[in-house]
Amino acid sequence: MSPRFIYEEELDKLSESLELMCAQVEHYYDRLFEASENQDEETIKKIIKNDSVINDMERDIESKCLMLITKQQPLAGDLRLVSSALKVVTDLEREGDHVADMAELLLRLHMTDLSRYSIHLPQMIIDTKNMLHESVDAFINRNCDAAKKVIMEDEIIDTFFNKVKDDLISHIRSNSHDVDECVDVLMLAKYLEKMGDHAVNIGDWTIFRETGNLQDKRLL
Amino acid sequence: MKYFDTGKSEKMNENKMLIKDLDLYYGDNQALKKISMHLKKNAITAFIGPSGCGKSTFLKTLNRMNDLIKGVRIEGNVFLDDKDIYGEDIDTTLLRKKVGMVFQQPNPFPMSVYDNVAYGPRIHGIKNKEKLDEIVEKSLCDAAIWDEVKDRLKKSALSFSGGQQQRLCIARTLAVEPDVLLMDEPTSALDPISTLKIEDLMENLKKKYTVAIVTHNMQQATRISDFTAFFLLGELIEFGTTDDIFTKPQNKKTEDYITGRFG
After folding, report:
1. A84 CB near a chain B CB, below 8 Å?
2. How far is CA B216 from each of CA A219, B15, B188, B203, rounded to the nearest angstrom?
3. Domains of chain A from N-terminus onward
4. C-alpha closest to that of A180 among A84, A78, A112, A128
5. Is residue B47 within 8 angstroms of chain A, CB to CB?
6. What's the ipTM?
7. pLDDT per residue over A3-25, tens digit each?
8. Looking at the 3D structure of chain B, how many domains does it have?
9. What value does the mean pLDDT take over residues A131-152?
10. Could you tell me the CATH number of the domain that includes residue B201?
11. Alpha-carbon gap: B28 to the closest alpha carbon of chain A (Å)
12. Is B218 at the interface with chain A, CB within 8 A?
């Protein structure tokens, strides 16, 4: 049995906090589109307000990492966990921001049916959600193969974004009265596309955590 | 035990010492098992491992200090340049001049700073005062203690602090112009500032010498060494660049040890 009980405990707490933050971001994402479908304005407002919960989680994890480095001087695999945690929380926090940003856009759009603007958007929302889930799952389960799959999937989301953009251009050309709404929908699609990019980053840090390599370059 | 690939060329001209299949027995008890590794020229190699793993014993085989212990039997080869130091025609006094040693506890002789440093050169026949003055100043400069003692060369070495005494001992070792410096936990009895001074000094020493250090301090090994060898129960478990050993060791036992999960 390891003689470093406190150290082991602190590493476990760090992993638990990361899992919790991953779950929280996913939870807000799911609730947002569910609430939009149910015209549940109150829930969407709560999601905007609760962005600070994600921010607080980020600060807490950063603090845990910095204290571990200061007090325990982690090495090898432990150092890769701590340093990847420091990077992943930034992506998770940005994903939380994008959920809040999309919540504001959905309120402005009066939670309208987004397929009215682009038939591709509902599937893009599902695929982005899957990518988000798969990326955090890969990180938590230290699964490099799953992380590689997430990285490959980014192209799908990018393609969706271009399709949505084309749909919106056609929509504007045929219905010039709702240009404002179209711009909001385009921004929403852009946030989804950005969330895909953050999922890719989490995939990259998952591989780093196991190998010390980031995009095939040895970092640690 | 396979010969470890450190990713660097194993040519002897890049290595100062080469150890092949070294076994060491204390009576019936085998303390070192088939150790094969090398000390690269002008590099610092750290030996790490839990107490009793054989790292200090191994260090002492590199200048035959274990010869002085009754019941010790050694098999295998230790080459200094291309000469086997366990060969028949080896003068151990000359060997220990070439492969000097610094110990855990500073151990200056109870005499003046000057006489401590001049002791070795005098033993080796240097009598000329000017030449001795030159050696003493140069050795004390190389050991980064000249400025602190230059006005007190006649004072007893024992009147200085532990950190100063240890640098004085390093100067005493350097005075006989060794090729290799062996250091057995040279900072474990020192305060943090003295420790950092010795660590800085080592970085400079490796420009002229080949250095091997036994340390229990992982951070010290990562800060100062170029290569690290991890010993456990008399075996060399892993040997590689310090960057690799402390970031991505190949052997789980190494990772468990450096992360403090046993030892």
Report:
1. no
2. 26, 25, 8, 18
3. 3-218 (1.20.58.220)
4. A112
5. no
6. 0.83
7. 788 999 999 999 999 999 999 99
8. 1
9. 97
10. 3.40.50.300
11. 31
12. yes
